[in-house]
Amino acid sequence: MTKTNVTRRQMLKTAAAASLATTGPWWLVRGSHAARAKKLVFWQLPNFTPLADQLQKEQVYEFAKSAGLKESEVEYATVANEGFAEKLAAALEAGNPPDVARLYESNVQFYAAQGHLLDVTDLVDKMRREPKGIFDSSLTAVRYNGRAYGVPLAVNPWPVHARIDLLEQHKLDYPKTWDEFIETCKKIQSPPRLFGFGMCLGLVEDTTDNVMNLLWCYGGKMVEADNKTVVMNSPENAAGVKVIEAMFRTHKIIPQGTIGWDNSGNNKAYQSRQAAFVMNPTSIYAYLNQSDPDLQKRTGLFPVPAGPKGTINLIDTWAFGAFKQNPYPELARGLISHFMQPANYDKIIQSTGGRWVPVYKRLFDSPFWKSKPEFKHFVSMAETGRPVSYAGSPTPAAGEVLNTHVIPKMIQRVLVDNWEPPRALEECHRRIEEVYARNLKL
Amino acid sequence: MTSGVDPAVLYPDERAVPTPVLRARRRRSLTGRHEARLAYALLLPALLVILGFVAYPFVSAVYLSLQNKPVGAVGRFVGLANYAELFRDEVFFQTVRNTIVYTTVGVSLKFVLGLTMALILDQKRRFNNVFRMLLFIPWAVPVVIAALNWRWIFDDLSGFLNNFLITVGLTRDIISWLADPRLAMGCVIAVVVWQGTPFYTMTFLAGLQAIPRELYEAAEIDGASVVRQFVHITVPRLRTIFLTTVMLSTIWTATNLQFVLILTRGGPANRTEIFPHLAYVTALGARRLGMGAAVSLAFFPLLVILIVLLTRRMLRQTDD
Amino acid sequence: MPRTTSGTRRLFRWIGNGLLLVMLVWTLVPFYWMIATSLKADREIYGFEATLVPHHPTLAAYVRLFQQTPFLKYVRNSTIIAVSTTAVSLVFGCLGAYALARLRFRGRRLIARGLVFTYLVPPSLLFIPLFAMMSALSLVDTHQGLILAYLGFTVPFCTWLLMGYFRSVPLELEEAALVDGCTRLGALIRVVLPMSLPALAVVAFFSFTQAWNEFLYANVFVNSVEVRTITTGLTLFIVEDVFFWGPMMGAAFLSALPPLVVYLVFQRWVVKGLTLGAVKG
Question: How much is the CA Rg of chain B, to the nearest whole Å?
Answer without folding.
Answer: 25
